[in-house]
Design a protein that fits this description.
48% of the residues lie in helices and 5% in strands. It has a domain of 128 residues: Orthogonal Bundle (Arc Repressor Mutant, subunit A), CATH 1.10.10. By secondary structure, it is mostly helical.
């Protein structure tokens, strides 16, 4: 298998704080999922105004996460993601960095919950093949830390070739799909 482009390593507190903003994070994930979009298209997708999305796109561009593409101007200028994913690293020892990392994770979890809920609520409106192939699975595993790390790497190796910003050979009927994987020590109350 060909070498896949790396995720962008994010260790800077200012960038982490920028990524913790829910609307900014949703816009970035949207353009990463569906390709170049205008501020107006982003606004329709994330439930905001075109001017607000335009401002957040410029902030994302300031950090090198998106860039404007040829064509259009102002709110009609398409923007594309410049990253294929983000690597937030292990939770930092520094409390300020760790707090910023946790804020990004929290924002991502809220967005994942929204997408999952939207899928479940609107599943009756989907074509049968999309309704039946959509899945929300959970597992209770018994593994040690090394096995969990290996499992996470194997899942990542399996999924990454299909990432929207990486894949160049998608069939004509391919559509953006949200996929998530979480694995962590189960902590009781």
């Amino acid at each position: 298998m060909a070498e896949l482009p790396p995720r962008r390593k994010v260790r800077d507190v200012e960038l982490l704080s920028a990524l913790a903003h829910p609307l900014r994070a949703a816009i970035l994930r949207y353009v990463m999922s569906v390709g170049p979009r205008t501020a107006s298209e982003c606004a329709d997708a994330v439930g905001s105004s075109a001017s607000n999305c335009s401002w957040h796109l410029r902030q994302l561009a300031r950090f090198g996460l998106v860039e404007s593409t040829d064509g259009g101007d102002g709110r009609q200028r398409p923007w594309r993601a410049t990253v294929v994913g983000l690597d937030l690293g292990e939770l930092a020892d520094d409390p300020t960095t760790r707090a910023a990392q946790l804020a990004v994770f929290g924002t991502a979890l809220v967005e994942e919950q929204k997408l999952t809920q939207r899928f479940l609520e609107r599943s009756d409106d989907l074509e049968p093949e999309w309704r039946t192939t959509g899945t929300v699975n959970t597992y209770s595993l018994t593994v040690n830390a090394a096995e969990l790390a290996e499992l996470a790497q194997r899942v990542d190796d399996l999924i990454r070739p299909y990432v929207s910003t990486i894949r160049k050979d998608a069939p004509d009927d391919a559509r953006p799909v949200h996929a998530g994987f979480r694995g962590f020590l189960r902590l009781e109350r």
